[in-house]
Amino acid sequence: MNKYEILKKYFGYSQFRDGQEALIDAILSGRDALGIMPTGAGKSLCYQIPALLLPGITIVISPLISLMKDQVQTLNQAGIHAAYINSSLTENQIAKALQLAAKGTYKIIYAAPERLETYGFLEFAKQAEISMLTVDEAHCISQWGQDFRPSYLKIVRFLQQLKRRPIVSAFTATATERVREDIVCVLGLEQPKLLVTGFDRRNLYFAVETVKQKDRFVLDYIKSHPEESGIIYCSTRKNVDALFEKMQDLAIPSARYHAGMGQEERRQSQEDFVYDRRPVMAATNAFGMGIDKSNVRYVIHYNMPQSLENYYQEAGRAGRDGDAAECILLYSPQDVMINQFLIENKEQNPEFTEEELAAVREKDAERLRIMNYYCLSTSCLRAYILNYFGEHNRGDCQNCSNCRKEFEETDVTAQAEKIISCVKELRGRYGINVAAGTLAGDGRAKLREYGMNGYSSFGSLAEMGEQRIKRVINQMLVEGYLTVTPDKYALLKLTDKSDEIIQGAGKVVIREVKGETSSYLQKPASSVSRRKSDILNSRGLELFDRLRGLRSEIAKREGMPPYIIFSDKTLVDMCVRLPFTREEMLEVNGVGEHKFNKYGEPFLEELRAYTGEKREKMFFGEMEEAESKAGNPLKYTRMKKGKADFFISAKQAEQFPYAEKYLAPELAVKLNELRDPDAVKKTSGAEIIRRSQAMGLSEEKLEDGLRCKTVTEKGKEAGLFLGIRISQKGTEYQDVYYDRNAQGMVVAWFVQ
Ligand code: ADP
Ligand code: MG
Predict the structure, then answer these.
(1) Which of 86, 410, 518, 635 is packed most tightly, with the most Cβ within 10 A?
(2) What is the pLDDT of residue 48?
(3) Measured in whole angstroms, how far is the alpha carbon of residue 716 from the centre of its chain?
(4) What mean pLDDT comes out for the span 645-662?
(5) How many Å lie between the centroid of ligand 2 and the Cα of residue 65?
(6) In the predicted model, is pLDDT for residue 525 greater than 80?
(7) Which of 422, 382, 419, 429 lies closest to 402, judged by CA?
(8) If you measure from the C-alpha of residue 129 to the centroid of ligand 2, how many angstroms do you get, rounded to a whole number?
(9) pTM (two decimals)
């Protein structure tokens, strides 16, 4: 088998993603490799496919037990023999697994770094034929990374003890130069193939929201996204517990996770989340590394994280399946303090000298500052992130809260000059709050106590107000006209660049939001990949729900997380393509032979039953469009070209079976039965709804994040009305019906 056949047969994909092929080829040619790709890009395949093609065993080092379990389950599901060896197994189980491994039962073995130096494992590794050693989450080896794990250093010693040096490959999502160098040096990679792919995750929507009542925001958000899976990251255990309690009170199926809980409790929590029994998770950053749950639709940060590296990694757990997902950071300036505290009390490598410790702390403070600027930025958030990771991006992504807000620009160079005078006058002994208060001429006791009211800059920007002064100062910090000391005091200082302002060579412009509306409900208008509700029409969504129900049943029976059976994306693609045979099913994105053999039939059955084996369009727009949105290469289209758009003759129209009421899709079915099927394309419920909306008869609004259909006055006159329907899950919702009059109108639209 070659790599393409393996990709199709075991993983069910027909194309490699960016970067995968180059890495696989390099490894197969015997070269070391370092792959730097963002979370969700598909790093696992880059070592799993070579592992299957190389003659011996591949050992994968991975930092977390949960990660290993998930990956091994996925592999076993795909029909690949893999195992993990870590402390979640008993000594007996480990001995057994190593025995089987020695016999060559497994092509891929996952192990925790601690395991490498144990006697049993070493004995096995010395005897076995090991083709490759892969280090996943390789940034853990770097003392400069945000996630250093001393145990990763054991990998080097382990390698030295093997009788033959295997190919070494390493993967991470952390892109900074320093970490990259560390990985190459510490692991001793030999002329590795280095591959860095784009870091952009176009399906993720980024937002920063400054909200007063964070709980309200979070709870409203969860309620308006029912049935969706999400993670809420808090910076402290206390916050996690408090939020968790509130979610429990509201009967939200939720779980929590932090290091203060017992091991068993954590395991249970994580499992409940992964298996979608409790799809909402409140957690500290202890949760998540290696959680490959692909259908996480949102990640909300209740507090600002300590670095942009952390943020992008945590937020990146949303939308791994490539479908649209949202990453929202709730900002409050106090978070900076909390983080400073956490950084100062962070556990450090005990082998560090005082000097090294100071260097690490300074680096941490700088990372925090950069994170803070992200929250204050008024330009494209995506561009900010990508530029930080060294990828040039021109911004204007139209899929972040800043791109979707309307800003007004104000030249504040004159004010900036006054700020610089003030900082001079304060002689760098105070932070932003005192400086802004002084400039605003605030009368609070503390300022008087410091004697600020005696300074010439006291009140020099009184007309601006303290909040706006802070905005200008922040902008100046971002542009380097001012700086703050890298310690918890964050004292405001001048820089080499400050003079440019005084000399008239620099310019400071702030952007302020026109009309302070929260942006998170203004959904991206044209994001690249969309939610299933944007791809599938109502028939399609109903089918999706059925397929999902079937998946749950199977998942329960097999004790597997649902997304390991088939991802949401795969189910959407089934609804678009409507496979009725094995061959057709194998064309579906994410259905490989092995999975088909295990689960294909019941899904085919459900698809046949739902459609009565009639081809029916269950998506909006054109086939190709829907396919590509569902993540599929444009391999073929089933829709025949060359037919005319839907129409009927006056004679055919007379045959229309009028009834008391029809939903739009029912109307479409009846209309389609009248047409000449060889010459004319079908119409659809979606088309009828679209026309109704275009004529101002009905509307679809987003209310509290829920899609909500309504009929206008004009629509009521025409005979449209709302009726209650009950969904598969037993919840009520409103849908638009057409009475006899309205049916006549719709029929007339299509008569030619
Ligand atoms: P990473 O380790 O880079 O964060 P994963 O290896 O966990 O990402 O992959 C993320 C998701 O992308 C998985 O669900 C995986 O099955 C899917 N994936 C990987 N490669 C492809 C591909 N070539 N085509 C489609 N989906 C893919
Ligand atoms: Mg991974």
Answers:
(1) 86
(2) 97
(3) 42
(4) 88
(5) 13
(6) no
(7) 382
(8) 25
(9) 0.63
Does the domain at 407-513 match CATH 3.90.1150.10? Answer given as no
Contact 231, 288 (CB under 8 A): yes
* CATH placement of domain 532-639: 1.10.150.80
Domains 3-196 and 204-404 share a fold: yes
Give the Cα separation of 231 and 284 in Å (integer).
10
The DSSP annotation for 42-54 comes to: -HHHHHHHHHHHS
Q: Characterize the bridge pairing of strands 82-85 and 732-738.
A: unpaired
Q: Best of 292, 296, 563, 567 to mutate for ligand 1, by most ligand atoms within 8 A of CB?
A: 292
For the cut 70, the answer to whether the pLDDT of residue 145 exceeds it is: no
Q: What is the DSSP letter of 657?
A: -
Q: CA 331 to CA 333: how far, in whole Å?
A: 7
Class of domain 204-404: alpha beta
Is there an atom of ligand 1 within 6 Å of 42 CB? yes
Q: What are the pLDDT digits (tens) for 214-260?
A: 999 999 999 988 889 999 999 889 999 999 999 999 999 999 999 89
Q: Whose CA is nearest to atom 19 of ligand 1?
A: 42
Distance CA 302, CA 316 (A): 16
Taking CA atoms only, the protein residue closest to ligand 1 atom 21 is 42
* Ligand 1 centre distance from Cα of residue 206 (Å): 21
Q: Measure 551 CA to ligand 1 centroid, in angstroms.
A: 20
Between CA 69 and CA 75, with CA 74 as vertex, the angle to 5 degrees is 100
Ligand 1 centroid, distance to 45 Cα (angstroms):
7
Domain extents for the chain?
A: 3-196, 204-404, 407-513, 532-639, 650-749
280-283 and 229-233: which strand pairing?
A: parallel
Is the minimum distance from the CB of 720 to ligand 1 under 6 angstroms?
no
User: Does any ligand 1 atom lie closer than 6 A to the CB of residue 209?
Assistant: no
For ligand 1, mutation pick of 44, 70, 134, 172 (most atoms within 8 Å of CB)? 44
Question: Ligand 1: distance of its center to the CA of 182 in Å?
Answer: 26
Cα–Cα distance for residue pair 591/604, rounded to 1 Å: 12
Interstrand relation of 509-513 and 407-411 (parallel, antiparallel or unpaired): antiparallel
Cβ 293 under 6 angstroms from ligand 1: no
Expressed in angstroms and rounded, the spacing between residue 183 Cα and the centre of ligand 1 is: 23
pLDDT tens column, 6-33: 999 999 998 899 899 999 999 999 999 9
Q: How far is CA 581 from CA 624, 631, 638, 706, 712, in A?
A: 20, 21, 14, 36, 44
Q: Does ligand 1 lie within 6 Å of residue 294's CB atom?
A: yes
Write down the pLDDT at residue 615: 82
pLDDT tens digits along 347-364: 776 667 787 778 778 888
pLDDT band at 728 (very low <50, low <70, confident <90, very high): low
Instruction: Identify which of 164, 9, 31, 109 has the alpha carbon closest to the alpha carbon of residue 597.
Output: 9
Q: In Å, what is the CA distance from 508 to each residue of 39, 415, 462, 479, 515?
A: 36, 9, 19, 8, 22
The tokens of 202 are what? Answer: 């176009």
Q: CATH for 3-196, among 3.40.1180.10, 3.40.50.300, 3.90.1720.10, 3.20.20.70?
A: 3.40.50.300
**pLDDT at 60 exceeding the cut of 60:** yes
Locate the ligand 1 atom nearest the alpha carbon of residue 37 and give its number: 3
The mean pLDDT of the chain is 86
Q: Which residue has the higher pLDDT, 439 or 678?
A: 439
Lowest mean pLDDT among 90-104, 191-205, 334-348, 380-394: 334-348
Within 10 angstroms of residue 333's Cβ, the number of other Cβ atoms is: 14
